[in-house]
Amino acid sequence: xxxxxxxxxxxxLQEGESSSLNCSYTVSGLRGLFWYRQDPGKxxxxxxxxxxxxxxxxxxxxKATLTKKESFLHITAPKPEDSATYLCAVQAGIQGAQKLVxxxxxxxxxxx
Amino acid sequence: xxxxxxxxxxxxxxxxxxxTLSCEQNLNHDAMYWYRQDPGQxxxxxYYSQIVNDFQKGDIxxxxxxxxxxxxxxxxTVTSAQKNPTAFYLCASSIARGVNEKLFFGSGxxxxxx
Lengths: 112, 114
Prior knowledge:
- The complex is a heterodimer of chains A (112) and B (114).
- Chain A has strands at 3-7, 10-14, 19-26, 30-38, 45-50, 56-59, 62-66, 70-75, 84-92, 100-102, 106-111.
- With 112 residues, chain A is mostly beta strands.
- In chain A, strand 9 and strand 10 (100-102) form a beta hairpin.
- In chain B, the strands form two sheets. In chain B, strands 2, 4, 5, 6, 9, 10 and 11 form a seven-stranded mixed β-sheet that branches. In chain B, strands 1-3-8-7 form a four-stranded antiparallel β-sheet, with no helix packed on it.
- Chain B is built from no helices and eleven strands.
- The chains are: A mainly beta (112), B mainly beta (114).
């Protein structure tokens, strides 16, 4: 069974304190790994798609990396506006987004 | 601006009542999805539709129903058979099927039981 586990469940950092969020996955035939950001009471917003081990993508203070077993979302010198829940999802097989498996999310809080 | 509109933002259901959540998109996307989000759990797929007049059950379809009469609209009905409906419901769409498509989400509907 395909599984996605995110850690930690919650993370509290001081402004400027860099850290990483983890997404471990067990799927057969990874087609893509997605990162989303979700603010309280709102829908998730797309951040990155990673397709193969070794791939990296960056956006402002965020960088996502992918290995054969896990993905990391690195946040460098975060600001309070980076506070949100970060969701990881994996797509396995060839059937498209209806086969996405989501992790439970990491709730990130950046204190000023 | 293109996007997905969900309404209402908050909805309350009485016991035995059916309620319908609205989802409209103007992105010209073929595929639309309904997810349920519970605290501490990942998003779970309720129903999805890849073309008009066709839809498929997801992982937790029991107690829910949908229709897809127009490309732009994909309403979800939470029936009285759904015994634990309290959750945050998210509608999403994607541009194509069978590829690594990213999802575009609406702003969600919080459903609570009175």
